[in-house]
Amino acid sequence: MVGAYYSETNKTKGKKVSCKIHKKAPLHSIPHRRERARDWDRAEGMEGKRTDQAKLSTMHSKVICCKLYISESQNAAVVDAISRIGQKDPEVVLLNKFEDEYYNRVRYTLVSYINSESATGEAVFSPIRKVLLAMIEAAFSAINLEVHCGTHPRIGVVDDISFHPLTQAATMEDAAQLAKLVASDIGNGLQVPVFLYAAAHPTGKSVSAVRRELGYFRPNHKGVQWAGPVLPDTLSMKPDVGPVHVPHERGATMVGAQPLVESYNVPIFCKDVPTVEAECAPLEANGVRAPGGAEGMEGKRTDQAKLSTMHPKVICCKLYISESQNGAVVDSISRIGQKDPEVVLLSKFEDEYYNRVRYTLVSYITSESSTGEAVFSPIRKVLLAMIEAAFSAINLEVHSGTHPRIGVVDDMSFHPLSQAATMEDAAQLAKLVASDIGNGLQVPVFLYAAAHPTSKSVSAIRRELGYYRPNHKGVQWAGQVLPDTLPVKPDVGPAQVSRERGATMVGAKPFVESYNVPIFCKDLPTVRRITQRVTGRSGGFPTVQALALFHGDNCMEIACLLDPDHVGADQVQWLVEQIAEEQGLEVDKGYFTDLSKDMMLERYFEIVSAAD
What we know:
Layout: E1 3-12, E2 15-22, E3 33-34, H1 37-44, H2 49-59, E4 63-70, H3 76-85, E5 93-100, E6 105-113, H4 128-142, E7 149-150, E8 158-165, H5 172-189, E9 194-198, H6 207-214, E10 226-227, E11 253-257, E12 264-265, H7 273-285, H8 302-310, E13 314-321, H9 327-337, E14 344-351, E15 356-364, H10 379-393, E16 400-401, E17 409-416, H11 423-440, E18 445-449, H12 458-465, E19 477-478, E20 504-508, E21 513-520, H13 524-534, E22 545-550, E23 556-562, H14 569-582, E24 586-587, E25 591-592, H15 597-611
């Protein structure tokens, strides 16, 4: 390794200079790198910018940054023409740009204010949006992806646009709202497919996950270059905005909102890509993102690092309770879940037709307990209080809904979130909570997955209990569905079932995502046939579990459980649409019912940091 440099620029004595650190070789030994930031400042008169920023901060407390990545740097006339467009609006500052001849890529960094009120009725307003659209249109007019080639991955002429809140007053939600507006300008206005990521995505899906699904990191020319279009004409995963068909000349675009990260590149004099990739592995193991040098390195926030050091094991529990039509009950249980500052009630999902609510709680777990038990987590005490409140307020005998259930507290699933937390930690905690319910509250409990002695699946238990068989009007579960004396012995608690409380399932398993796809159809057998073709048990996606459920007078839903490491929601959505089209049925856009694993961790640390 001969040197290193930031791809941003730092300020020294009121002037912006490129920050370069070289250990052995001078700058001229890396001839392909265009260091234009200093010349840019002199030519455009951007000195003394701190004064302007102070004025802007006084006028507008919310300041936001956008990084626009365009696939061109070898044609200086095009790069400069786009730059000039970025300087036309006095309310938007084109702070710098970074070009690389080998990557054949340029990044423009723009900064402006953002307001939560818009005269057009939209969620937010920022002058940066109009400027971005003009720069993007210019890029699409001047650059043809079919003749582009470079050593940096890309999927389109406008490859990536990332939004970052800069001031304390600006929130991630502000950045996400602006990102989605710009995504609509590109996807719906310019008819270019757009994939959202991080805070702009409904479940916080990471940009790396999107890129992996698109094959972003696989070069298609000479093993090290990306040449011409890299995506198929028709995308296999449905974009979040815009058409499924990809224009060859423009490609596709990614748009996201996330905390500000630094890009730091380290040159190595070596031609062997596998050797350099192997050198990246130790960096990734220590929390640094460095996939072959393509993405740079992302820093973790100080607060997260401190909390991770204090409690490296973070666990999640999803608590499913059979009630959603009584708002007072649902809210009272929510308030109990918010009383302990060490436990974060991260989200809840209610469905009126299902008459069911899911609470997602996150906290730490330790392997040491003063009581002598295998593990300790403050989540256990909070869960017990929420469960007791549910049993006090809800009577299963008068409950009815279109989602299967066997009890007031129908299911609890525990999932390790952080790398330090293990499945054994989750299983131990699940068994302690099962004992609290079964032995303490005298409600039968069935264990599943890692919490079960033989890892029996939750689906196997449900089939044994007749879980999937509705007992009312062919589409509803009404009152008690289990016999007074269970045909299958529970793992914990009595064999006798209380008609008011029912039974409960408790398990520990890897994190899964819930994704529901609405189909405008009243015929349950038809939708069940579509569901069977989606699930792994019937020849569909191997890791997908799905259930056809009634969801209103003219609608059914295919409720899916997805393993995000193997199958994406876009793939499921696309397959359902294809099968439904064969049947002449209309399909609505699906939706996630909870946050992604990455977003859960991020929000948990944010909330706990703010509380501290």
